[in-house]
Amino acid sequence: MELTLIATSLSTALILSNAASIALAASRLKRRTTIARPAGKLPPVSIVVPSRGVEPFTHETLERAFSLDWPRYELIFCVAHADDPVVGLIRQAIAHFPEVPARLLIGDDRVSANPKLNNCVKGWEAARHNWVVLADSNVLMPRDYIQHLIAAWRPNTGLVCSTPIGSRPDGFWAEVECAFLNTLQARWQYAGEALGLGFAQGKSMLWNKPMLDANGGIRALAAEIAEDAAATKLVNGVGLRVNLVASPFEQPLGRRTLGEIWSRQARWARLRRVTFPLFFAPEILTGAGVPLVLALGAAASAGFSLPLTAVAVLAAFYLPECALAWSKGWYLSPRMVAAMIVRDLMLPAMWARGWLGGAVDWRGNAMTIGTKAAELEETPSRA
């Protein structure tokens, strides 16, 4: 009876903490609306876009970057190698939108084992303005992209970010990726911000250039294997906060495979483990797996119906997730509950994999992530 009571209590506590995280995230998030330009003189902004390879939505994301509703901004595209096929598309876009100041910089500054950070260095150093956005090339920027970032800046802010919100999935596995990105990872990131634990996200990062330059510049982000982890620690170290935009930006997904999802999510898990191990450790409790096992064990001991217990636990987990996605205008389909279940079946294996070292592929760059941050090193890529 004591074990049954303990299992029931733990399962209930995990279900309630899941609901609380959704409520906290919902309190910070807003459904997407267009933000008008602020009144008065608007600061010029530099947008640095590290690019590698051509993806299904590259044409659209490029066009969006040249169509922002901001009076003065420049685009700085960074590519590591001149033979990258994306170079031709970027040059075509620059020629097609001559009214927007834009440059393409090619080269690789080897300041770290992080290929994205290496690609960004030249863009950061070439930026002409005091406000700089580091934006991944697969972010689908809305016209009011800069407005959303500026609106989240506060007097005690050191960095403004946006989590990626998966959209336009093509196939079931892309919906599983939506389940990872949206109602799990973005939800917990916004819940953390509500509790004063803001974590940076590298998809879109608005920096005050003089502030970062005074604290080591972009090269200081090489202190960690992931630039967003280094950014979080740097900003907190100078007594400032990381803020998130109220309406995060889309990342169109297209088709995904199970292998692609596993590779990406396992890599992120290992990066979180080496950079924030104390926060990574309880991630095993964020899915429905642990509370479901505890509830079924308690139900078996008490003679309750196992199918009804399973349905009750899954409904308590996934209906609030669906409500969050619906209320914020995120992707939702009849298959999303199935996608969430598959995601939670994958979570324990990913969590366990996160504690192990080994090689990962980062967009064609092979890396070895050891069991400690000090063991991080880059290795030649077979790609």
TrEMBL record:
Pathway(s) where this gene product acts: Lipid metabolism; sphingolipid metabolism; Sphingolipid metabolism
Intracellular or extracellular location(s): Membrane
UniProt GO molecular function: ceramide glucosyltransferase activity
Highest taxon, organism lineage: Bacteria
GO CC aspect terms: membrane
GO biological process: glucosylceramide biosynthetic process
Predominant place of localization: membrane
InterPro entries listed in its UniProt record: Ceramide_glucosylTrfase (IPR025993), Nucleotide-diphossugar_trans (IPR029044)
Topology in the lipid bilayer: Multi-pass membrane protein
Record keywords, A-Z: Glycosyltransferase, Membrane, Transferase, Transmembrane, Transmembrane helix
Matching PANTHER family: CERAMIDE GLUCOSYLTRANSFERASE (PTHR12726)
Protein name: Ceramide glucosyltransferase
The species this protein was found in: Rhizobium loti (Mesorhizobium loti)
